[in-house]
C-alpha cells in the first residue's frame, strides 16, 4: 500500500467529490480511503454522485454514502437514473450533470474511475469529467492520484 499525503491540514474543510457510474463503484473503488479521510479530516465533506442508481440500487447508494462518509459529512447522494451501459449514447445528458456539479461543488479532491476502466458508463463519465477541466498529470494506479484543476483527483 502507498501512503497518500495531501496538502491540507486536519482542520481544513476538505471538499471531496465522489463519482460512481454504479451504486457500488465508490465504496468498492475507494471506500477504505473515504473512511481514512473521514478520520484524518473531521471537517471533510463528501459530495456523493452515482450515475446509474435505478430501483433497489438507489437504496444501496444512499446506505453506502451514509455508512462510508457518515450522515453529517455526506452531501447527497445525488442519484441519477442513467440506464446501465447506455451512458455513451446520452453524452449530452451526462455532460449536463457535470455542468450542474460545476455550479454546486468546488472540490479539493475528486474520486472517480480509472481511465483504463473500459466499462461504457465509466468511459462516458470520464470524457465528461475531462471536458470539465480534470486533467491527468501524475498518477498512482488503483487509487490514482491526479493533480489538476482541483487540488487532486483520485481515480479508482
Provide structural commentary.
This protein has helices at residues 25-40, 56-69, 91-104, 120-131, and strands at residues 15-22, 45-52, 74-79, 109-112, 144-146, 152-155. It has a single domain, classed as 3-Layer(aba) Sandwich (Rossmann fold), CATH 3.40.50. It contains four helices and six strands. The longest helix has 16 residues, at 25-40. A six-stranded mixed sheet has the order 3-2-1-4-6-5. Helix 1 packs parallel to helix 2 (56-69) and helix 3 (91-104) crosses helix 4 (120-131). The radius of gyration is 14 Å and the shape is globular. Helix 1 (25-40) links the parallel strand 1 and strand 2. The protein is α/β, with parallel strands linked by helices. Mean pLDDT is 77; it is low at 133-152.
Short description:
The chain has 156 residues and is of the alpha/beta class. It has helices at 25-40, 56-69, 91-104, 120-131; strands spanning 15-22, 45-52, 74-79, 109-112, 144-146, 152-155. The chain has one domain (15-155): LmbE-like (Rossmann fold, 3-Layer(aba) Sandwich).
